[in-house]
Design a protein that fits this description.
This protein is mainly alpha-helical and 88 residues long. The chain has a domain of 51 residues. The chain is built from five helices and no strands. Helix 3 runs antiparallel to helix 4 and helix 4 crosses helix 5. The longest helix is centred in the C-terminal third of the chain and has 26 residues. The chain is elongated. 11% of the residues are buried.
């Protein structure tokens, strides 16, 4: 089982956002962001993320689903902008 290296999570919990999309991620709670990084970017499954963050797998699924919803809204807004709409 993978484990988090001490302190690496600080990159995702502090510091200025680098892009508009990062700014959206920065508005999420730290554990939700970590769950998203581990699930989407590091390709760990729910059980592995849960073990690393000391959460239940169902909590990790909830965090991942909420991030998906946020990303879906962002993608839809960007698509609307590309088609001539305005960001609200």
């Amino acid at each position: 089982m993978s484990e988090l290296r001490p302190g690496w999570w600080r990159v995702w919990t502090s510091g200025p956002p680098m892009t508009w999309q990062d700014d959206k991620a920065a508005g999420q709670p730290p554990r939700r962001r970590l769950a998203g990084v581990l699930f989407f970017l590091e390709d760990h499954n729910y059980d592995a993320v849960a073990a690393m963050l000391k959460l239940t797998p169902s909590t990790v699924r909830t965090h991942v689903e909420r991030l998906r919803q946020q990303l879906r809204r962002l993608v839809n807004r960007l698509a609307d902008e590309e088609q001539g709409g305005e960001l609200s």
